[in-house]
What does this fold into?
Amino acid sequence: MAATADNGEKMILLISSDGERFELSEAAASQSKTLSHMIEDDCTDNGVPLPNVTAVVLAKVVEYFKKHAAVTPKTATEAVAADKAKREKELKSFDAEFVDVDRTMLLELILAANFLNAQDLLDLTCQHAADLIKDMSVEEVREVFNITNDFTPEEEAEVRKENAWAFDN
It folds into this structure.
């Protein structure tokens, strides 16, 4: 089901876990190593099922890929001709707004980026998650991410002792 857009660009079809379909140019899809390999191996003709990615999350991922493909020059000549600082500022603003989502969506985006092997998206979302928790205590992080403490008090004391540097403020 590889189609061609009006501008002659090849398109691929992504199918979310809940059956929604999203069209994406091959150029935009190339930000994902997983999709790039599938394109190279001609495995995208009937669409690409993404069983680990819901439609809501895939819509965000497609938005990210499209924006970054549109703003990133395709050739070195374009890079020289384009105003690099303006492009970088535009992407930085987009990225900041893109990750301004609830924690559940952020975690789903991290999982999708990892599944798709989309390194720039994974870096962006992981950095945002790290920024969110950097000043939190261990207990606060556990609460935010619904993590059960499976250490006994003695085991936790030992871990804290061995890694005291990590608990210094």
Q: What stands out?
A: The longest strand covers residues 10-15. Residues 55-71 form the longest helix (17 residues). The chain has one domain: 3-134.
